[in-house]
Each structure stands twice: as structure tokens, then as C-alpha cells.
Amino acid sequence: MTLDILTLFPEMFDAPLGKSIIGRAADKGILTIRTHQIRDFTTNRQNQVDDYPYGGGRGCVMTAQPLHSAWEHARALHDGKTRTIYFSPRGKVFTQSDAIRLSRDYDRLIFVCGHYEGVDQRFIEACVDEEISLGDFVLTGGEIPAMAVADAVCRLVPGVLADESCFMEESHWAGLLEHPHYSRPEVWQGRVVPEVLRSGDHAAITKWQRKQAFLATLQHRPDMFERLLFSRGDLKLLGELLDETDDPAVREALSVFHTGRITVRETSERDVKGLRKLFADPAAYVASLAPPALTDYSIYADDHGFCGHVGVRLEGNIALLTCSILPHAKGKGIDTFAIAEVLGKLFALEDVTACHSADDLSPDLVRRIGFRRDETGIFVLTRDAWMAYRTS
How are beta strands 2-7 and 108-112 bridged, if at all? Predict the structure, then answer.
């Protein structure tokens, strides 16, 4: 990975990127990090890089010429796949997924650090591929964002850290915050390291860490928790957390995850009694089903009885899913379990390549199972996405 940084203050990068893990990786040749003083590329005697803005207003704007000349110089130093990033308040807020993308997809990055009131829009249009922001606040220049993004990206480059697990188990890698950490001594100011971490039972420790990561994310970043995609194993852990916690807020948030046994079976005459709550003539409805092209699955839960049904309509290689849950069973995660079970049955059929979500399914629900919107706005789950969900 090669990183070229266009800046008015190159000396600011010496310590953050020249020491510790990033510095050692550069010394080994794993990373190449260069700073370029934008003033060196001016064509005026004063090395002036800014001027008054057209249209008036306070402050000055960085002019296009020195920025473009510095950018062309940096670009000529390397032939690999390059992306130019300008740090701007109007840019997309940087996340761990961006760090992963930039480290994986590009051989070289060029960072442009602005100052004053910004840079000439024509340079952005001509040279910048992407604008990035650290958040909804203002800094005096782009150097601090450049340092942060450089560190986040470079540490993901193979060989920079000792092992991939060093970053794959950290906060934000899979949309979760990390579990709590403890070190010696075993007791500090009356606070004891959790017993499971001292047990030597690696399976129990892994389970505890996963549950604590869920808990930390729920408590500190509920916005992240709402976007999580849960495997069936994860749903079981969330049910256990619900049983273990006394925190009212956590219990309320986890109450949607059903912990009892759920049965999903192909609808038949024996389900007519329950179907009366959904259909005016359930017997006729059941008689109209023609598996596998027209199939329904009835849902039962130990503590709720008949809960609803999942409908399947096969059209060629595409399955369209619908779901109806009775009021007494809503808000308990039963629909998530049931749809996941039906998807398993559908993708076991060789002819089914994808599933579409009907309008009656909650967008949040189908996202958690792996559905994503296609270019037409329809939620679609491919066979590959389902396999990723099933094995997660």
C-alpha cells in the first residue's frame, strides 16, 4: 500500500505515521507513506496557495493550480490502482467498512488536505474520486482526518499487524463493539475479573465474549445494534441474554427475540382451525394450495400456539415470500425464526436461485436475514447471501 498525502503541514505526519505499528510497517517496506508540500508546486514567487473567493465572503480558498500540480506529481510516482480522497465536511462519514474497502481495493491512495474555506471546486471535479468526513464537526484542516483514515486503512494491510484476528475481533469489524477486556491483577479495588475468563474453558469464553459484544453494542450504540444481521446461533445467545439480565432497558430491547421452541410446518387441513383467524374460508384456502409452486407454512410456538403463516409463490427460479403474524405473537421475533426456516427449505430446492420479499414484510426484518434492495427497490435474497447468513 502506497499513501501520498498532499498537505501544507507535512511535519504533522512524522510522529503519527512514522512511529509505532504504522512506522514499523513502513520501515519493513509493507507501507510507503509520502507527504508532499503543496507550496512547493506553486508558480508564484510568494509560494501563495490561496486567494479570495469569487462572489465574495470571508476567508480565502485554496487555488486549483498548486493542488493539481502536486496531485500530478504524486500520481506519476506509482502506476497501481489509485483513489484520490479529499477530506471535507460534506463528505461521507468514514466507517470501518470504508477502511476495509480502501485497504482491499486500491494499491495507492492520494489524500488531499484542505485548509482555509476549502479548495477550488474545479480541482475537486477534475481530480477527486471521493470526499470523506470524520463527522458533523469542523476542523482547521484536513490533516487530522488524513491521519485517522491513514491509520485505520494501513493497519488492515496484510503484514502490518501480526495476524488478521488482531483486527477481525475488534469493534466495528462485523458491526459490533468489542467485548470488555481484563488484565492482571485478578482483583483490583474490590472488582473481580469475571469467573468465566479465569475458567480456561475456551468455548465458554468465546460464548461470553460474543454475548458481551452484543450487550455493549446494544447499550452504547443502539443504532449499530439495529443494523446487525443475526445468525440463528446469535438469536439463541440473545435469548440467553434476555434471561440473564435485570436491566429493564436491555430486557425491553431484547424482548423481541423469542426463546421458546418454534415449529414451522407445511400447511395442511390440520391447520384449518388456526387459519380461521387469517382467512374467511380456510378450508378452501388450503385446498387451493398446489405445492411447491403455491405453498404455505404454518407457524406454532410453545407458548403462543398458532402464530401465523409464511406464504410462498414460486415463479420460475424466484420465490416470493409473504408473512402474516397474529397480534398476540407480534414483536417476539417469531417471524424472523419462521422466515429463516422457510428460506432453508426453499434454498434446499436446486431450482430456487433467489427470494423476493413481499410488501407486507418489514424492511428491518428482511435486512436482518440478509435481503438487500436491488436496483428496482425490491428486497432480494440470493442463494450466496443466504449461505453466508446460514453459516454466520
Answer: parallel
Domain's final residue, options 166, 200, 219: 166
In a shared domain, residues 9 and 131? yes
All residues at 6 or more sequence positions from 82 whose CB lies less than 8 Å from its CB, including other chains: 75, 106, 107, 108, 109, 110
Give mean pLDDT, residues 365-376.
83
* Nearest by Cα to 360 from 388, 330, 382: 330
Is 201 found in the same domain as 111?
Answer: no
Co-location of 306 and 380 in the same domain: yes
Whether 155 is in a domain gets the answer yes
Same domain, 268 and 212: no
- Domain finish residue from 208, 236, 254: 254
Going by C-beta distance under 8 Å and a sequence separation of 6 or more, which residues neighbour residue 361?
321, 322, 323, 339, 379
Are 276 and 224 in the same domain? Answer: no
pLDDT at 170 over 70: no
Q: Which three cell numbers stand for residue 19?
A: 512511529
The amino acid occupying position 272 is V
Say how far apart CA 391 and CA 213 lie, in whole Å.
Answer: 19
Distance CA 22, CA 159 (A): 11
**Residue 181 domain-assigned?**
no
Same domain? 35 vs 134: yes
Phi/psi of residue 10, nearest 5 degrees: -60, -30
Least confident of 39-53, 182-196, 355-369, 370-384: 355-369
Whole-structure pTM value: 0.65
What share of the chain in percent tops pLDDT 90? 57
Nearest-angstrom CA–CA distance, 130 and 90? 11
What does the pLDDT average to over 296-303?
A: 85
Is residue 176, in this structure, part of any structural domain at all?
no
Proportion of the chain above pLDDT 70, given as a percent: 93
pLDDT 10s digits, 187-213: 999 999 999 999 999 999 999 999 999
Which among 358, 355, 359 has a CA at the least distance from the CA of 371? Answer: 355
Q: Please say whether the beta carbons of 295 and 267 come within 8 A.
A: yes
Domain housing 108: 2-166
